[in-house]
User: Fold this.
Amino acid sequence: MIIEFEIEETGLSASQKKEAIAKIQNRLMSVGLTNVTVIEEKGQKVTFTFQGAIKPKALKRNFVVAGKLEFFEVVTEKKLVLDYLFENYKSNSEDELESEVTEEVSENKDFTEFIEVVSMVPNDLRDGLIGFVKVEDKERLEVSTIYRTPFFVKSLNKRVKFLLGRSQNEKEYLLHVVYITSTGEAPLDGSCIVDASVGRDAAGRYVVNLKMNKEGAITWERLTEKVYHERGFIAITIDDFIYSAPSVSNGKITGGMTQVSGDFSKETAEEMAIAISSGTIPKVKITKMMLAEETISGK
Assistant:
């Protein structure tokens, strides 16, 4: 039995491609397949042979999620972020040179569109929520320069970026701002995870339980302690989407244990756990599967 993938991410070096193939192989083994072996590499396409039974649709679902797990501190000083946006994108000055006015109009257009698609919430509440975005406006927001570009807020003395998150209302998303490092990264990511499994919370809902290595546990303890004292929130994201942004109500969390919630079904939680535990893979497309002498197109 064989399966062929096309790696859609271009420009990978030889070492990066080798690492990507190893992670795809690991993901295949994580879903229960055995004797997973590369039998052909041709351009961006990689073909594996394997043993084991799995349904084609279920296999495809396991490769939709890249599995990039990250943890961010949520910005609760929303007014400072909004002040930055107004100061930098909405200028009323009329004493500008023509070239500068042209640039200003472009910036104002981007700012206007950003304001149009985001329904702002009161900025005096320390809930870390900037506003709501309707599902139909998601694409408009994601092409916005303001949304896509991390920025440095002087009054916070930190770099931040916008991220969309899950809402209980299926017709909208939540918009948060999170702190990032000077290099644009999260303070903690999935490289620290040594185990991810499916469980249930106190209300009986499916969650993904995470266990971190020693280094991750230390970073997690420091992060949760800081957020606890500041009465803040931690955004838990998978593939740049916030699944939950809980507060830390009982002090720092030791031992490197935590969980991701997100109104998961059992099936979705299992797929998420597999994606996280097997490591982040590049964007791929299944182009061919041959199961029990039957060829199934991945298109």
In short: Residues 98-117 form the longest helix (20 residues). The longest strand covers residues 34-42. Helices lie at 14-30, 56-61, 78-89, 98-117, 138-142, 145-148, 214-229, 266-278. The radius of gyration is 22 Å.
